[in-house]
User: Fold this.
Amino acid sequence: MSTWLITGCSTGLGRALAEAVLAAGHRAAVTARDAGAVRDLVEAHPESALGLALDVTDPDQVDDAVRRTRERFGGVDVLVNNAGYGYRAAVEEADDTDVQRLFATNFHGAVAMIKAVLPDMRARRAGTIVNISSIGAQACPPGSGYYAATKAALEAMTGSLRKELLPLGITALSVEPGGFRTDFAGRSLTQSAEAIADYADTAGRRRKENDTVHGTQPGDPAKAAEAVIAAVAAPEPPALLLLGSDAVASADAILDARRAELDTWRELSTSTDFG
Assistant:
């Protein structure tokens, strides 16, 4: 039995993961900005679930969530940074305040949670940090430049973090879901107020009013949750876990294209050395 601290448990993958972790007999601090959104989980698992109000952009709430989890269960074994949301806009269309808020939640909020749990994990020489990213960090779809940037930043940080923590007995990994049937592309998706006509055939096609994907995504959140639990329990968890056949297909295509471009430009790329 281990103790999990999961952010963003009101809906979607965070909710499915909280349910699966508790059903498997683990303890879990389940969080949402409104603690009422996770009350039913606590009522169903009164001995093993702790419901907490948590806005990851609020430093006091971050510290309080980690402290209360430690007081109730003795420490955090697995941190899952799942809290976040989507944002769509052509790069030129985006409002600066919207972008700052997006990074504050999707990237800086995760960093705050990591810094809050690491002292105890280092003292125990044990722990796992799971950062929920997106295949968008690799695919970079039009209209998702800023969202993809938050996730790419999260993955790059996680890669360095993993190397820093492995000698201390702590694991860090990124999880890249593809399309899953959650609220991510529905209620949770935001977008710029302004739409520039010149981007109608690129970013504009993926604005909420034009996107027909919501509700038809191939991914099952319950199966994704089980996959995350399996990866965490593995003797050697992966550095990057893809979730969904669409994510794997996208990653394959991206890797093939990058290799082909690398080979095409290899001579010019290597011509810049001295001598």
Remarks:
- The chain has nine helices and nine strands.
- The beta strands are 3-6, 27-32, 49-53, 78-81, 86-88, 127-132, 170-177, 189-191, 240-243.
